[in-house]
Amino acid sequence: MVNSAFEAMEMEAVYAPLNVSPGALAETFDRLKQQGVKGFNVTMPHKTSILQLLDSSDDTSSKIGAVNTVSRERASYIGYNTDVEGIVQPLRSRGVERIDRAAVVGTGGAARAFCAAMAKMKCKGVTVVSRDAKMAGGFVSQMTASFPSIEFVTSDFGGPINGEFELVFNASPIGTRGVPLPRQVGAMVESHQLVFDAVYSPNETELIKLAESRGSRTIRGHEMLLEQAIGAIRIWTGRPPPAEVMRKALIHSLEVTAS
User: What is the per-residue pLDDT across 229-255, written as a single tens digit (0 to 9) for each?
Assistant: First the structure.
């Protein structure tokens, strides 16, 4: 997807994956700096820990404590978070400009971006669903400090998840291959809701299948992936990338992966 954009933009640039263990992040980042790399994306589990290695970060990344895009600007490496727009844009494309109450499953980098997205949507309340009560408590404390206009509450997988939600957002690995959908999360899904799954592989997750079977509107993870990539390329190049070229390349790659 990104290389297709670079080709269409006639840029001499290459986007390549790197598998980096948590203990090797600092060493890998130093090597990238020595090589003069222009920019890169950061994914789980590095979105929070990369912050301490950067020269600075934008306001959104600082607020939520998570970076997914790094750009070299002169001699400095700056952190950004394009996941936020990756969430907001698919919602707005469906005519959604405001969310009253929402639920988010997970407490990682995507969940942090979701909270910033909900602030943009003037959300009043977010229920944070997590297996780890201690982690959820710390997450809620941080997000409350960053977004005081939103009421954050926690709920765990130990019992029913109560609340009336307009939007259910999966920011966790559930639904990826080998990670089943917890019964309690499935029980949250109702026909009047919008269900947004950040997982993009497989394209049709267990949560998406369940939501569509119950008549819910759905947003699949590839839409978020596309929008965050568009934002990242714009940061790296200062130019608008070819969105349709990227969309077609992404859909093709997901179809190849599924086959």
Answer: 999 999 999 999 999 999 999 999 988
The first and second tokens of residue 127, run together, are 């229920």
CA–CA dist 64, 206 (Å, integer): 28
Q: Is the per-residue pLDDT at 173 higher than 80?
A: yes
Task: Please list the alpha-helical segments (H only) found in the chain.
Answer: 2-8, 25-34, 59-64, 83-92, 109-120, 133-146, 183-188, 206-213, 221-237, 243-258
pLDDT exceeds cutoff 80 at 47? yes
Q: Is 122 an annotated catalytic residue?
A: no
What's the rounded Cα separation, in Å, for the pair 182 and 218? 18
Q: What is the pLDDT of residues 190-213, one digit of tens each?
A: 999 999 999 998 889 999 999 999
Please pick, among 33, 38, 47, 134, the residue that the annotation labels catalytic: 47
- Measure CA 83 to chain center: 5
pTM, to two decimals: 0.93
Residue 150 has a pLDDT of 98
- CB atoms inside a 10 Å sphere around CB 195: 25
Model confidence at 153: pLDDT above 80: yes
For the chain, helix, strand, coil in percent to 5 are: 45, 15, 40
Distance CA 77, CA 73 (A): 6
Domain architecture of the chain: domains with CATH: 2-82+226-239 (3.40.50.10860), 84-222 (3.40.50.720)
Sign, Cα dihedral of 217, 92, 227, 196: negative
**133/153 Cα distance (integer angstroms):** 11
Q: What angle do CA 26, 226, 1 make, to 5 degrees?
A: 80
